[in-house]
Amino acid sequence: TSAGSFPKALTTAEAIKYYEEHLKTAKNDTKAMTRLGWLYMKGGDYEQALKWLKEAASRDKKNDELWRLTAEAAMKAGDVEEAGKAWSHIATLCKEPDKIMACGKELLALKDYRRALDVYALAAKAAPDDKRPLHGMSAARAMLGLPTEAKFVIKPGESLGLIKLDASKEIGRASCRERV
Questions:
Q1: Read out DSSP for 36-51?
Q2: Would you state the torsion angle of the CA atoms of residues 10, 23, 28, 45, taken in this order, to the nearest 10 degrees?
Q3: Dihedral angle at the C-alpha atoms of 75, 78, 81, 85, nearest 10 degrees?
């Protein structure tokens, strides 16, 4: 039988059981994996949903809806790393700069700043005259502790903005006492 040929009146639990049995013999049925993942999501078992959706997405790398469902399952399962991977992959599937930037925004919300930086760079290439991806890149760079402007240079161990780090606390206290 195919993955979609079961009676329509099944409960979620019965449908899950049906697809699990089906996948024992049809191990490469990506649609069945996707449906099973969706059913687990519907039932609130996000870890199982993520397991099946990741497997389906690994076989269907160009299905952005499947990848979005995978990202949602990962976020609900608390797996920030998998959610970040999924949003980053979705961005590579998008052609429109706004959709790419939406992926960057999701990555910023996950605090996955490194991937967000890469995604906003992709958006900047897709829309060279649009300043919004550059703002997203600046936000990600700032959160990573990287300079947001080419003119701003950080020398590790020597400077942080206008503050010189080689002076000790004692020197700073002594100079404060001298002024009083």
A1: HHHHHHHHT-HHHHHH
A2: 70
A3: -20
